[in-house]
Q: What sequence folds into this?
Protein backbone atom coordinates (compact mmCIF):
# COMPACT_ATOMS: atom_id res chain seq x y z
CA UNK A 1 0.00 0.00 0.00
CA UNK A 2 1.68 3.25 -1.09
CA UNK A 3 1.75 6.15 1.35
CA UNK A 4 -0.09 9.31 0.42
CA UNK A 5 2.18 12.30 0.00
CA UNK A 6 0.16 15.23 1.35
CA UNK A 7 1.60 18.75 1.35
CA UNK A 8 0.48 19.63 4.86
CA UNK A 9 2.05 16.42 6.23
CA UNK A 10 5.40 17.48 4.80
CA UNK A 11 4.89 20.94 6.29
CA UNK A 12 4.10 19.51 9.73
CA UNK A 13 7.16 17.24 9.66
CA UNK A 14 9.40 20.10 8.51
CA UNK A 15 8.27 22.17 11.50
CA UNK A 16 8.83 19.15 13.71
CA UNK A 17 12.37 18.74 12.36
CA UNK A 18 13.05 22.39 13.22
CA UNK A 19 11.72 21.80 16.72
CA UNK A 20 13.81 18.68 17.35
CA UNK A 21 16.98 20.32 16.03
CA UNK A 22 16.59 23.28 18.38
CA UNK A 23 15.45 21.02 21.22
CA UNK A 24 18.58 18.87 20.93
CA UNK A 25 20.75 22.00 21.02
CA UNK A 26 19.06 23.41 24.11
CA UNK A 27 19.07 20.00 25.82
CA UNK A 28 22.83 19.65 25.28
CA UNK A 29 23.39 23.08 26.90
CA UNK A 30 21.19 22.18 29.88
CA UNK A 31 22.97 18.84 30.32
CA UNK A 32 26.34 20.60 30.24
CA UNK A 33 25.29 22.96 33.04
CA UNK A 34 23.87 20.06 35.06
CA UNK A 35 27.13 18.12 34.67
CA UNK A 36 29.17 21.15 35.77
CA UNK A 37 26.93 21.54 38.84
CA UNK A 38 27.51 17.91 39.74
CA UNK A 39 31.28 18.50 39.80
CA UNK A 40 31.10 21.83 41.62
CA UNK A 41 31.90 21.77 45.36
CA UNK A 42 31.13 25.42 46.06
CA UNK A 43 27.34 25.91 46.29
CA UNK A 44 27.70 29.61 45.53
CA UNK A 45 28.98 28.73 42.07
CA UNK A 46 26.08 26.49 41.09
CA UNK A 47 24.05 27.64 38.09
CA UNK A 48 20.35 27.18 37.44
CA UNK A 49 19.70 24.45 34.88
CA UNK A 50 17.50 26.04 32.20
CA UNK A 51 14.13 24.70 31.15
CA UNK A 52 15.29 23.53 27.73
CA UNK A 53 11.82 22.97 26.20
CA UNK A 54 10.88 26.54 27.18
CA UNK A 55 14.09 27.89 25.64
CA UNK A 56 13.37 25.89 22.49
CA UNK A 57 9.91 27.45 22.25
CA UNK A 58 11.33 30.95 22.65
CA UNK A 59 14.04 30.34 20.07
CA UNK A 60 11.53 29.08 17.51
CA UNK A 61 9.21 31.99 18.25
CA UNK A 62 12.01 34.51 17.72
CA UNK A 63 12.97 32.77 14.48
CA UNK A 64 9.36 32.83 13.24
CA UNK A 65 9.19 29.03 13.05
CA UNK A 66 6.18 28.46 15.27
CA UNK A 67 2.87 27.71 13.53
CA UNK A 68 0.92 30.94 13.11
CA UNK A 69 -1.90 29.57 15.28
CA UNK A 70 0.53 29.08 18.19
CA UNK A 71 2.81 32.08 17.87
CA UNK A 72 0.88 34.12 20.44
CA UNK A 73 0.10 31.22 22.79
CA UNK A 74 2.18 31.14 26.00
CA UNK A 75 4.50 28.21 26.50
CA UNK A 76 2.90 25.39 28.51
CA UNK A 77 5.46 23.61 30.66
CA UNK A 78 5.43 19.87 31.44
CA UNK A 79 7.49 17.98 34.03
CA UNK A 80 8.08 14.37 35.03
CA UNK A 81 7.80 12.90 38.52
CA UNK A 82 11.19 14.35 39.46
CA UNK A 83 10.15 17.82 38.24
CA UNK A 84 12.47 17.67 35.27
CA UNK A 85 11.17 19.49 32.17
CA UNK A 86 9.66 17.24 29.50
CA UNK A 87 9.08 18.30 25.88
CA UNK A 88 5.48 18.27 24.70
CA UNK A 89 4.23 18.36 21.11
CA UNK A 90 0.74 18.11 19.60
CA UNK A 91 -0.08 17.50 15.94
CA UNK A 92 -3.53 18.83 15.05
CA UNK A 93 -4.65 16.86 12.00
CA UNK A 94 -8.05 16.64 10.24
CA UNK A 95 -10.02 13.41 10.11
CA UNK A 96 -8.46 11.08 7.59
CA UNK A 97 -5.38 13.26 7.46
CA UNK A 98 -2.84 10.53 8.19
CA UNK A 99 -2.39 10.75 11.95
CA UNK A 100 -0.87 7.28 12.15
CA UNK A 101 1.59 8.13 9.40
CA UNK A 102 2.59 11.32 11.20
CA UNK A 103 2.91 9.42 14.47
CA UNK A 104 5.27 6.83 12.98
CA UNK A 105 7.23 9.54 11.17
CA UNK A 106 7.52 11.50 14.40
CA UNK A 107 8.86 8.44 16.21
CA UNK A 108 11.57 8.01 13.61
CA UNK A 109 12.62 11.61 14.12
CA UNK A 110 12.41 11.59 17.92
CA UNK A 111 14.58 8.51 18.29
CA UNK A 112 16.98 9.36 15.49
CA UNK A 113 17.33 13.14 15.67
CA UNK A 114 16.75 13.78 19.38
CA UNK A 115 17.34 10.64 21.47
CA UNK A 116 20.06 9.28 19.20
CA UNK A 117 19.12 5.65 19.63
CA UNK A 118 16.95 2.99 18.02
CA UNK A 119 15.52 1.22 21.06
CA UNK A 120 13.30 2.30 23.92
CA UNK A 121 9.68 2.43 25.01
CA UNK A 122 6.68 4.05 23.31
CA UNK A 123 3.23 4.25 24.87
CA UNK A 124 0.79 4.58 21.97
CA UNK A 125 -2.73 5.54 23.10
CA UNK A 126 -5.75 5.45 20.78
CA UNK A 127 -9.24 6.80 21.53
CA UNK A 128 -11.49 3.85 20.64
CA UNK A 129 -11.65 0.19 19.73
CA UNK A 130 -11.97 0.74 15.99
CA UNK A 131 -8.73 2.73 15.81
CA UNK A 132 -7.07 0.28 18.21
CA UNK A 133 -7.89 -2.63 15.89
CA UNK A 134 -6.78 -0.71 12.80
CA UNK A 135 -3.51 0.46 14.35
CA UNK A 136 -2.70 -2.99 15.71
CA UNK A 137 -3.29 -4.52 12.28
CA UNK A 138 -1.04 -1.97 10.61
CA UNK A 139 1.81 -2.27 13.10
CA UNK A 140 1.80 -6.08 13.22
CA UNK A 141 1.72 -6.48 9.43
CA UNK A 142 5.38 -6.57 8.41
CA UNK A 143 4.75 -5.59 4.74
CA UNK A 144 2.72 -2.55 5.83
CA UNK A 145 4.59 0.75 5.30
CA UNK A 146 4.02 1.88 8.90
CA UNK A 147 5.56 -1.30 10.29
CA UNK A 148 8.39 -1.07 7.80
CA UNK A 149 9.15 2.47 9.00
CA UNK A 150 9.42 1.18 12.58
CA UNK A 151 11.56 -1.75 11.42
CA UNK A 152 13.97 0.64 9.69
CA UNK A 153 14.13 2.77 12.83
CA UNK A 154 14.78 -0.18 15.16
CA UNK A 155 16.81 -2.46 12.92
CA UNK A 156 13.93 -4.99 12.82
CA UNK A 157 13.67 -5.03 16.60
CA UNK A 158 10.07 -3.91 17.06
CA UNK A 159 8.22 -5.47 19.99
CA UNK A 160 4.49 -4.68 19.83
CA UNK A 161 2.86 -4.98 23.25
CA UNK A 162 -0.61 -4.73 24.74
CA UNK A 163 -1.87 -3.81 28.19
CA UNK A 164 -1.55 -7.27 29.76
CA UNK A 165 1.98 -7.94 28.48
CA UNK A 166 4.89 -7.88 30.91
CA UNK A 167 7.40 -5.09 30.42
CA UNK A 168 11.04 -5.95 31.07
CA UNK A 169 13.84 -3.39 31.22
CA UNK A 170 15.96 -5.73 29.10
CA UNK A 171 13.35 -5.60 26.34
CA UNK A 172 13.42 -1.79 26.41
CA UNK A 173 17.21 -1.84 26.12
CA UNK A 174 17.22 -4.34 23.27
CA UNK A 175 14.06 -3.50 21.30
CA UNK A 176 11.73 -0.72 20.25
CA UNK A 177 8.84 -1.60 22.55
CA UNK A 178 5.55 -0.13 21.37
CA UNK A 179 2.72 -0.65 23.87
CA UNK A 180 -0.66 -0.11 22.25
CA UNK A 181 -3.34 1.04 24.65
CA UNK A 182 -6.94 2.16 24.28
CA UNK A 183 -7.96 5.28 26.22
CA UNK A 184 -10.72 3.46 28.11
CA UNK A 185 -8.35 0.63 28.96
CA UNK A 186 -5.77 3.08 30.29
CA UNK A 187 -8.28 4.31 32.86
CA UNK A 188 -9.23 1.01 34.46
CA UNK A 189 -7.30 -1.77 36.22
CA UNK A 190 -6.44 -5.00 34.42
CA UNK A 191 -9.39 -7.36 34.61
CA UNK A 192 -12.05 -4.67 35.05
CA UNK A 193 -14.84 -5.00 32.53
CA UNK A 194 -15.90 -2.35 30.07
CA UNK A 195 -19.15 -1.92 32.03
CA UNK A 196 -17.09 -0.92 35.06
CA UNK A 197 -15.07 1.82 33.37
CA UNK A 198 -17.14 4.83 34.53
CA UNK A 199 -15.27 6.93 32.02
CA UNK A 200 -16.77 10.05 30.56
CA UNK A 201 -16.15 13.73 30.05
CA UNK A 202 -12.37 13.87 30.08
CA UNK A 203 -11.82 17.49 30.97
CA UNK A 204 -8.31 18.13 29.68
CA UNK A 205 -4.79 18.28 31.16
CA UNK A 206 -4.65 17.96 34.90
CA UNK A 207 -8.32 17.03 35.25
CA UNK A 208 -9.76 13.63 36.18
CA UNK A 209 -12.48 11.76 34.29
CA UNK A 210 -15.80 11.83 36.09
CA UNK A 211 -18.96 9.73 36.05
CA UNK A 212 -21.76 11.27 34.05
CA UNK A 213 -25.22 11.37 35.66
CA UNK A 214 -27.16 8.20 35.02
CA UNK A 215 -24.09 6.19 34.01
CA UNK A 216 -21.70 3.94 35.80
CA UNK A 217 -22.48 1.60 38.67
CA UNK A 218 -26.06 0.72 39.70
CA UNK A 219 -27.31 3.07 42.35
CA UNK A 220 -26.98 1.93 45.93
CA UNK A 221 -27.49 3.39 49.37
CA UNK A 222 -26.28 6.96 49.46
CA UNK A 223 -26.35 7.44 45.69
CA UNK A 224 -28.27 10.43 44.42
CA UNK A 225 -31.01 10.42 41.83
CA UNK A 226 -28.47 11.78 39.37
CA UNK A 227 -26.30 8.67 39.58
CA UNK A 228 -23.34 7.70 41.72
CA UNK A 229 -21.34 10.41 43.46
CA UNK A 230 -18.14 11.39 41.73
CA UNK A 231 -15.12 9.30 42.70
CA UNK A 232 -12.26 10.93 44.55
CA UNK A 233 -9.96 12.42 41.87
CA UNK A 234 -6.69 10.57 41.49
CA UNK A 235 -3.45 12.40 40.76
CA UNK A 236 -2.15 12.09 37.23
CA UNK A 237 0.68 9.55 36.96
CA UNK A 238 4.12 10.99 36.43
CA UNK A 239 5.68 10.56 33.02
CA UNK A 240 9.01 8.81 33.65
CA UNK A 241 10.19 8.93 30.07
CA UNK A 242 11.86 11.45 27.81
CA UNK A 243 10.08 13.60 25.25
CA UNK A 244 6.48 13.05 24.66
CA UNK A 245 4.59 13.64 21.50
CA UNK A 246 1.04 12.95 20.50
CA UNK A 247 -1.47 13.14 17.71
CA UNK A 248 -5.10 12.31 18.33
CA UNK A 249 -3.51 8.92 18.93
CA UNK A 250 -1.13 9.82 21.73
CA UNK A 251 2.40 8.58 22.23
CA UNK A 252 4.84 8.75 25.07
CA UNK A 253 8.32 7.86 24.17
CA UNK A 254 11.65 7.51 25.79
A:
Amino acid sequence: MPLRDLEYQARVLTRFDDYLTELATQKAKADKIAAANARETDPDLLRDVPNFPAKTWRALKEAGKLPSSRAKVPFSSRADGMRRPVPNVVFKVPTGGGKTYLAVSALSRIFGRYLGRSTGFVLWIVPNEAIYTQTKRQLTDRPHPYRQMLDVLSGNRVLLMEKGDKLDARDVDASLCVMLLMLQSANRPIGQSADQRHIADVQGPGRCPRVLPGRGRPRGPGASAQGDPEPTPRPRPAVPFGPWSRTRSAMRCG
Observations:
- Confidence is low (pLDDT under 50) at residues 193-228, 235-254.
